[in-house]
Aminotransferase class I/II-fold pyridoxal phosphate-dependent enzyme
Amino acid sequence: MKIQSKLPSVGTTIFTLMSQLATEHKAINLGQGFPDFNPERELIDHVHQAMLDGMNQYPPMAGLLSLRERISNKVQSLYGHTYDVDTEITVTSGASEALMSSILAFVHQGDEVIVIEPFYDLYLPAIELAGGRAVPVSMTPPQGPSGRYSVEWNKVEAAITSKTRLLIINFPHNPSGITLDASDLDALENIIKKHNILILSDEVYEHLVFDGESHLSMATRPALAACSIIVSSFGKTFHATGWKVGYCCAPKELSLEIRKVHQFNVFTVPTPLQEGLSRFLQNPNNYAALPVFYQRKRDRLIAGLSSSKFRVLPSEGTFFLLADYSALSEMNEFDFSVWLTKEHGVGVIPVSAFYQDPQAESSNQQLIRFCFAKQDHTLDQAIEKLIQL
């Protein structure tokens, strides 16, 4: 039987490919974005106790009420916006499902969706499955020794047409590690005042913002909150990526449509995981302490790489760090990443993989992405190899 693929251009993801390569060559995997340490024992105990307490059957489709209440309280405390626990918060099977369900809910055949590149690899296939067309708008790449990526919002606005349905943003940004400031929110407010579009805000690294700064969620501005779907992740926040528990917050009329897709996609999320997270969230310090925890790891990797030929870019948030390898090689990013993994035992991700066309010259800035969500001895072993290059 001849099969016509709905995603003919999609193959094995770069994350899977580089992780397999790291395993085959016994390399230290600083590529794929997951911790190599467990969640807090308290959280695991809460989940275990929920199982023992008999919480093993279906929870409500939108998520346990207690967890939705904790999410609402957290968002109100951090960002000053209150989401209704009954109609505006949905617990999802990871942030991935929240993103997919949101895109499927609002993107129709022929609609355009603006994505800011480099971008997370889920966005384009989800848009394609929904029948839409992605319209990438590239950030300005880093310039000079202390450069960072930056968004030119006038270019974003110029890409909006009568067919534009959605703008997808992702801050703190994967892979670049940049965060938003007040001027970025001002620019977004100006855009939505003039154009009838929705914002899908991927905020999975909301609790990983460094150097004493705070995350500026779409929920901090009423005008933005009114037209935004905000997605977050307990897996990223609490070192439990394999649990695949996330959530999305959106106005009632938007949440209603998202839940229609969610209901027939996964229906709901494992009950004991939700209950364990609900109990764990009673102590705000369990997420408030994360910036210091991860900043120490970031600084450890930066300090180690200072003795190498890599030039480190600023990491304002996430658990990723970009480095320029132009002093070491003229290879493109994919070839350099493969070479580094095979020949020198450190797995990384080429930043070009986050562009629509990874082979294009404009997608290759001689940058690689390190993940520093690792145990200290893992980072130290990687640093030892990298400074020998």
